[in-house]
Design goal:
This protein is mainly alpha-helical. It has one domain. The protein is built from four helices and two strands.
């Protein structure tokens, strides 16, 4: 697996989302915001559930590393 993107870098692509949010919405928002393949791959590996906020997403990214 490629290097895990920095959580701050990932959050730059997720601005403006209203929480809670689904994994599908997270991926769509990141893609629409111009996220690169490393960020999209990392987000694609998080569990498919609702996330209550940015910290929940960052936590899952660190767990899947």
């Amino acid at each position: 697996m490629a290097d895990m993107p920095n959580p701050i870098q990932v959050q730059k692509f997720l601005g403006g989302m209203e929480y809670p949010v689904s994994k599908d919405t997270i991926l769509k928002t990141a893609k629409d915001s111009g996220a690169d393949e490393a960020v999209l791959d990392a987000l694609g590996n998080i569990p498919d559930r609702e996330y209550s906020g940015p910290n929940a997403i960052s936590h899952e990214l660190s767990e899947s590393n």
